[in-house]
Q: What sequence folds into this?
């Protein structure tokens, strides 16, 4: 069985070393997921550009998408990282757990977003008219829908990378959900 390792700064290209330096300045460390991307010459820079693109969604809304998709895809790394980021964006522990199930009963608009995201991720974009209608009735636009799908794509990339490589999670481990809504 292949053993996947996270490279050190000395083991990556000069361009990726520069990105590591920026991450260390901004975050205080280089998360293992980002370091793993640096095994590829361009993937880390490309991924960070995607992740940091301008969006019609607020940071809190992007975290809803990140949490839901990471749960749908069973990615413990991203569940853990986005639990931390979700709390940094104002969600409580209980709210983070609820969001991961695909709902947010504490906020009607975020609830529509969580339900829409879960349906899109589980059904590869083929969602019912009712789910789409609820999303739009909550105040979201077609531009928002496009951004939700871009964030879903971003998170699928990370989820799949970690699910394949299974490198160490360098965030506090997210609580397992006791029950997963079907």
A:
């Amino acid at each position: 069985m292949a053993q996947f390792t996270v490279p050190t700064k000395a083991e990556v290209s000069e361009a990726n070393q520069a990105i590591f330096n920026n991450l260390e300045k901004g975050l205080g460390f280089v998360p293992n997921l980002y370091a793993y991307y640096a095994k590829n010459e361009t993937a880390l820079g490309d991924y960070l550009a995607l992740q940091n693109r301008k969006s019609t969604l607020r940071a809190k809304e992007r975290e809803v998408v990140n949490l839901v998709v990471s749960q749908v895809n069973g990615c413990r790394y991203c569940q853990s990282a986005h639990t931390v980021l979700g709390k940094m964006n104002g969600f409580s522990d209980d709210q983070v757990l609820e969001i991961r199930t695909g709902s947010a009963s504490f906020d009607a608009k975020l609830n529509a977003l969580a339900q829409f995201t879960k349906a899109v991720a589980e059904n590869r974009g083929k969602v019912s008219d009712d789910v789409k209608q609820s999303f739009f009735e909550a105040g979201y636009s077609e531009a928002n829908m496009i951004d939700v799908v871009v964030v879903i794509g971003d998170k699928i990339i990370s989820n799949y990378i970690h699910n394949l490589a299974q490198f160490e999670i360098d965030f506090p481990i997210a609580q397992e959900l006791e029950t997963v809504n079907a």
